[in-house]
């Protein structure tokens, strides 16, 4: 036996001795027993004590019942019960609903994982709170205070899809409140209906008020990008889409007209409510909790759902921001995905989205899909690329004539411009012939700038060293942070920058650009290197591949078109245009330049 065991045994024995001496002496035992017996006999023979206890308990219950009755009136009896969690589930989502209040408490998207590779909870009880309130003669009633009895059944629709229906009822002899949830297979939409059966004179309001507060859970590793793209969106019944943007300060807006839907949208996912008819008195609020890295943004809405004969309905959408999926939900719902400004959005909506959907059927590697898309777009735009090359080549071969004009009229800018216009007309050369085809290709370049940061198709898809094409690739980590650049090096962005600088050098050999314009081509790639270093790897990879394909196209054109052939065409045009009269446009342009020059001299 060691020291600790011996010490423990001695202390244990000491406790027993002390207890026996002070609390367990023999003379006291009969008195305790007698007292106990006497008290029992007294209670049995004379019920004076027992009614006192019963009276106290009854009085306490009566106070609680009276308070409950005063607050809830005819609904008082259904404010007591046991909470139960019910689950509606299909192949895409799992929705948990509480029997207390009949409210959605958790949503899991089964096809997706969080950036930590955990089940993706779009929201849960801790992050989201919904309060449905209706006016009664006893005051506002929060449905979360009522207990409902659930029943679940399944059926088949006309297409053979399984439809699960969860019905929750809370009622008394005076009537009942019925809330019903419906979920079909293959759908991210959960329809909810609300109905008051009887309860004449109990409810005084003609609308169901909702307060929904949601702490949008961060699902991506790049929190800054998620916050930049998180928006509280809405769509009015008149067909207008708008939102509270990406500001970090507290923002609140009251929408002056009825609303069709409200959506809490983060980068790749949306939780939304879509009215069967309309939402009224809609107020939206958002703020950014800078110190909490688990939350993208705090979003909230308060709105009114009109009751028609005691009934109302709306649809929840819990799912991904996938353009083709959102487009099938309701009018304007696809606008939860930012496809860019109106002059480039058509490229994404009608070309890129459909190309991705088509190629996904045949390829599983999204790096390969991006390469194929580059080739298809470049092939479609090849006629413009060809015209651009020829236009720049013509300007290059007439450079000696332009240099002569500069020597002759270099000190008179207006005269120089006039003579250049005459030269271009005489030689059949347009100064914009090389630029215009490039301008026509710009919508495709800008469209990609919006598409890739919002393409859920690239989320958690790897390619080469990039673990996730929807965020920046980290080729290696820097031990310090460079302002406006970051603390990592994106290799795809670096490759894009190098290829763009080489392309600029190659392109300068084909043009007559000099001075600042020539150097600008080298500055822009470096600027974009800083901008795109924290953008999705898929975007930088697209631009890199696009540059490489452009090199190939220009090399191919150069094999079949050389400067001598172009010079021959210019001389041919020169011979034809010897006696050519000035066009009305050219004459007006010259007159305008002369007027401007005379005004300047005055």
Automatic annotation (TrEMBL):
InterPro entries: Membr_insert_YidC, Membr_insert_YidC_N, YidC/ALB3/OXA1/COX18, YidC/Oxa/ALB_C, YidC_ALB_C, YidC_periplasmic_sf. It is found in: Cell inner membrane; Cell membrane. Residues 587-602 have a biased composition (Basic and acidic residues). Residues 366-558 form the Membrane insertase YidC/Oxa/ALB C-terminal domain. It is a multi-pass membrane protein. It comes from the Bacteria. Residues 577-602 are annotated as: Disordered. Keywords: Cell membrane, Chaperone, Membrane, Protein transport, Transmembrane, Transmembrane helix, Transport. HAMAP family: YidC_type1 (MF_01810). Belongs to the OXA1/ALB3/YidC family. Type 1 subfamily. Required for the insertion and/or proper folding and/or complex formation of integral membrane proteins into the membrane. Involved in integration of membrane proteins that insert both dependently and independently of the Sec translocase complex, as well as at least some lipoproteins. Aids folding of multispanning membrane proteins. This is Membrane protein insertase YidC. The lineage of its organism: Bacteria, Pseudomonadati, Bacteroidota, Cytophagia, Cytophagales.
């Amino acid at each position: 036996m060691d020291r600790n065991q011996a010490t423990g045994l001695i202390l244990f024995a000491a406790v027993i001795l002390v207890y026996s001496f002070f609390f367990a002496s023999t003379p006291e035992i009969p008195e305790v027993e007698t007292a106990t017996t006497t008290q029992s006999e007294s209670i049995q023979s004379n019920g004076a004590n027992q009614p006192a206890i019963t009276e106290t308990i009854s009085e306490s219950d009566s106070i609680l019942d009276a308070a409950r009755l005063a607050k809830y009136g005819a609904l008082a009896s259904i404010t007591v019960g046991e909470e139960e969690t019910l689950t509606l589930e299909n192949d895409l989502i799992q929705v948990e609903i509480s029997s207390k209040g009949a409210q959605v408490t958790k949503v899991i998207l089964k096809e997706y994982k969080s950036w930590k590779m955990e089940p993706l909870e779009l929201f849960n009880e801790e992050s989201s709170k919904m309060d449905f309130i209706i006016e009664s003669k006893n005051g506002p009633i929060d449905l979360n205070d009522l207990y409902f009895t659930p029943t679940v059944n399944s059926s088949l629709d006309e297409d053979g899809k399984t439809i699960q229906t969860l019905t929750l009822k809370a009622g008394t002899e005076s009537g009942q409140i019925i809330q019903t949830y419906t979920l079909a297979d293959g759908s991210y939409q959960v329809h909810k209906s609300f109905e008051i059966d009887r309860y004449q004179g109990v409810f005084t309001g003609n609308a169901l008020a909702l307060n929904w507060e949601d702490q949008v859970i961060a699902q991506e590793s790049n929190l800054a990008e998620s916050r930049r793209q998180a928006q509280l969106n809405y769509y009015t019944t008149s067909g207008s889409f708008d939102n509270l943007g990406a500001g970090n300060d507290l923002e609140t807006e009251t929408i002056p007209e009825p609303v069709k839907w409200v959506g809490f949208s983060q980068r790749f996912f949306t939780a939304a409510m879509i009215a069967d008819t309309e939402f009224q008195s809609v107020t939206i609020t958002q703020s950014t909790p800078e110190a909490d890295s688990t939350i993208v943004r705090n979003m909230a809405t308060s709105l009114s759902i009109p009751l028609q004969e005691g009934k109302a309905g709306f649809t929840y959408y819990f799912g991904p921001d996938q353009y083709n999926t959102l487009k099938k939900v309701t009018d304007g719902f696809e606008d939860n995905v930012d496809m860019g400004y109106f002059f480039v959005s058509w490229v994404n909506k009608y070309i890129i989205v459909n190309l991705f959907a088509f190629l996904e059927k045949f390829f599983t590697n999204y790096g390969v899909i991006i390469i194929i898309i580059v080739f298809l777009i470049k092939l479609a735009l090849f006629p413009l690329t060809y015209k651009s090359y020829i236009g720049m080549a013509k300007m290059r071969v007439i450079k000696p004539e332009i240099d002569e004009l500069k020597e002759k009229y270099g000190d008179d800018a207006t005269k120089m411009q006039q003579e250049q216009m005459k030269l271009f007309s005489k030689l059949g050369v347009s100064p914009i012939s090389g630029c215009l085809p490039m301008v026509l290709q710009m919508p495709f370049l800008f469209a990609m700038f919006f598409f890739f940061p919002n393409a859920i198709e690239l989320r958690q898809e790897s390619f080469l060293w990039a673990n996730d094409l929807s965020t920046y690739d980290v080729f290696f980590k820097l031990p310090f942070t460079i302002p406006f650049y970051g603390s990592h090096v994106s290799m795809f962005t670096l490759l894009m920058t190098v290829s763009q600088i080489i392309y600029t050098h190659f392109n300068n050999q084909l043009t007559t650009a000099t001075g600042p314009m020539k150097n600008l081509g080298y500055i822009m790639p470096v600027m974009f290197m800083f901008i795109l270093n924290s953008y999705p790897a898929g975007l930088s990879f697209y631009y890199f591949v696009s540059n490489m394909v452009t090199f190939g196209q220009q090399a191919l054109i150069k094999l079949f078109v050389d400067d001598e052939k172009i010079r021959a065409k210019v001389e041919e045009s020169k011979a034809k245009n010897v006696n050519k009269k000035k066009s009305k446009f050219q004459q007006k342009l010259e007159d305008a330049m002369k007027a401007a020059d005379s005004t300047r001299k005055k």
